[in-house]
Amino acid sequence: MTTKAAFGRIGAWRSATQLDGAFAARAEQLGYGTLWVGGSPVSDLVIVEELLDATEHILVATGIVNIWQADAASVAQSFHRIEDAHPGRLVLGIGSGHREATPERIRPLAALRSYLDVLDDEGVGPDRRLLAALGDRTLALAAERTLGAHPYFTLPEHTAHARRVMGSDALLAPELTVALGDRALAAARPFVRRYLGLSNYVVALRRSGVSDADVDGGGSEAFVDRIVANPAPADAAAGAAAHLAAGADHVAVQALGDDPLGALEQIAVELDLM
User: Fold this and answer.
1) Residue 82 is inside which H or E element, if any?
2) Can you tell me which residues the record assigns to a coiled coil (predicted)?
3) Got the DSSP string for 8-21?
4) What is the pLDDT of residue 1?
5) Which residues contact 151 (CB under 8 A, 6 or more apart)?
């Protein structure tokens, strides 16, 4: 059984296409408790297997497998293949993606329920899976039928609200993007602009008190500074601490820029992870 404590306090988040065994091994050495495989890893989960093969104890979680792109039964088969080789070290995160990128995204909550039904039938139990969740109904579903929720591109205000919706028992593991160094703002701006083009994130941000002025035109400078912790390791640590204080059990840190491992090392020192 996977527990909330197994995730550790802080994890490292990286897109599946930018991950390899060397990155995973270094993240483990730095003291990160979980490595999050971002983007939409394909159903064979070969990248997950590679990361687990290269490490000894770090938990690996998908953040997330897109339910419209990866058949549930095939994903379950991959899960069991990996579970046989690395028992207890994989958590399957799933989600319904974005309306703008997924034309077939119709009745996503019902589709998530059906996907979870298949995982139940295939023996991938609630304690080995979680949901990408922003809205109240998806957060409630995450608490009801999985280990918990992995919100992305959110503020601590959302974390506090999610905790109230989900109750105290469910895992709450938000993602936090950070950008360190002299070019932090330059790295953060295109990232923020991309996600402000997706309606589900904008709706969630507005529910967290973000104004139109904050998000219009790709995001005000003040908003970019709020949503992407920068530019010093202490700022990144403070960003993670704010989510934890708001009710998160775990924070998944995504480092922008040309040297993500260097940034993660600085943050690990600041947070005393090693």
Assistant:
1) helix 72-85
2) none
3) -SEEEEEEGGG--H
4) 80
5) 132, 133, 134, 158, 159, 162, 172, 174, 175, 204
User: Which residue segments constitute the domains of the chain, with CATH numbers given?
Assistant: 4-183+230-271 (3.20.20.30)
Residue type, 272: D
Residue with tokens 């969630």: 204
Q: How far apart are CA 185 and CA 137, in angstroms?
A: 34
What pLDDT shows up at residue 61? Answer: 98
User: What tokens does 191 get?
Assistant: 């990232």
Tell me phi and psi for residue 149, to 5 degrees.
-130, 150
Considering the entire predicted model, what is its pTM?
A: 0.97
Sign of CA dihedral 35, 98, 125, 121: negative
pLDDT tens-place string over residues 95-126: 998 675 666 667 899 999 999 999 999 999 99
Q: Which among 24, 19, 73 has a CA at the least distance from the CA of 44? A: 73
